[in-house]
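Entry 12.
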Amino acid sequence: MKTTTSRVPQRVLVVDTEDDPLAALRQAFQSVCGRHAVITTVRSARALSEELGRRPRYEVVVVDYVLGDGHTSGADLLAELRAQDPLVPVVAVSERGDVDMAMSAVHAGATDFLVRGDRLAERVQTLVRKIRKTLGLIEHNRTLGRQTRELELRDRDRMIGDSPLMTALSEQIDGVASIPRPVLILGERGTGKELVARAIHARGFGPSRPFVVVNCAAFSDALLESELFGHERGAYTGADSAAPGRFEQADGGTLFLDELGNMGLAFQRKILRTVEYGTFTRVGGTRERTSLARIVAATNADLPALIAQGRFLPDLYDRLAFEVIRVPPLREHPED
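Predicted 3D structure (tokens):
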């Protein structure tokens, strides 16, 4: 494969602290990348997350591995950053450093490591030469990824069957796909509920938005909370770094909650607020976060019966059932 060399990066995002220790580094990047390059500074993890979501994309992110943003460590920022954007080149920097620190930063998610010090402009110039090649490869991979996703979604969106029932189902999917509100999919095991969810996503959002699947039956309520909402560092034993949950990963796309009827009442109350307002808090955290993920839920359970038994919240059912799609079993359309 021919290696593509990109132009000098024109959008650089720098995470700094209130004391502004990276001012000289920003000046070096401005000098190397040119006067028209946009060098943006943020001073918090939240601002970093917001900037990463903007378009056009940033081509380089710079994080002080030791200082972070003054509140969140560089390692934790790298973990959050990589969960949001696995591809963007990230340069971890430090006032002093050694091979062990550089290896630690790369293992945490950095693309490269830079020690701030003398001849900073020369160091940055060497770094940018390497980044240009990386950007070329990233753009090539993104193009291939887009083409692959388009082919996959095209295949997954093919509803099998030409019977009146399947034709009606496909028409119902068309009707709900473009309206970004919750959908509840009902059907027996093996009827293709996930296929219907993927078709809704493909016809509504296309391949550029995330489609995230969570099998609610695979987790206890305690684990499901962390899986969906994420956790902060130290939230529980073994939580050595912060991690986003599925709601964050699906932001702007579709979150498919399979086997929804397996949730306990206590957790149903927690997720009800997220369904209503799109807000949640990570396990062990205090900051309220927002997700614009569209929720598509599926179950083979009789939810009205569970409501009558006091095992499912009627309010949660009402919020999810804006649109209800029933997937017929094959015995109802044997001609397919």
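Annotation: Confidence is low (pLDDT under 50) at residues 1-5. The longest strand covers residues 294-299.
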